[in-house]
Design a protein that fits this description.
With 159 residues, this protein is α+β, with helices and mostly antiparallel strands. Helix content is 43%, strand content 33%. Strands 1-2-3-4 form a 4-stranded antiparallel β-sheet, covered by helices on one side. A 4-stranded mixed β-sheet has the order 5-7-8-6. Helix 1 packs antiparallel against helix 2. 10% of the residues are buried. The model has no long low-confidence stretch (mean pLDDT 84).
């Protein structure tokens, strides 16, 4: 049986929209510049506009990494955590569900900031998520994650 939940991190969603809108305007200006340079036969201006379009493409690719989703999945005896960007999917954790040590995080936001400042702690939780925050400990690292009650119960059942 496979069960998974996804949590969206849209903290910089507005910034992403603004950057992509500015990139669209820059692309339109560069295309107009290319058309104008072709009509006046100024080939150096075409090269400049092409470089501008390449730079804008690089900014657009970078802007897609401002928002992402965290996917928590249990599949039979495997527990996995994925970070999913619009262009890429990264596997953060994949382990046996029986070897997972989960503890409920019962601190406040200042304790969470102190814990996430530690170099051995990876924050994979979203504060605006309706799910509870848990601390997952694996091989000396701590992961702050969001789990719903059912997924937490399934991991505890496997242990």
């Amino acid at each position: 049986m496979r069960y998974s939940i996804e949590v969206s991190q849209n903290k910089y969603g507005v910034l992403k929209i603004i950057v992509l809108a500015l990139c669209l305007i820059a692309d339109l200006v560069a295309i107009a510049g290319i058309v104008g340079a072709l009509s006046s036969k100024r080939y150096a201006d075409i090269a400049i506009c092409a470089v501008i379009m390449l730079a804008v493409l690089a900014v657009q690719c970078g802007a897609t990494f401002l928002t992402y989703k965290i996917k928590y999945q249990i599949d039979d005896d495997n527990f996995s955590i994925y970070k999913i960007y619009p262009l890429k999917k990264c596997e953060i954790v994949k382990t046996n569900a029986g070897g997972v040590s989960l503890k409920a995080f019962e601190g406040n936001s200042s304790e969470m900031k102190t814990l996430s400042a530690d170099k051995n702690t990876v924050t994979l939780c979203v504060n605006t998520c309706p799910y509870a925050i848990y601390v997952l400990e694996l091989s000396g690292k701590k992961y702050l994650i969001n789990l719903d009650d059912y997924l937490y119960a399934k991991t505890e059942e496997k242990r």
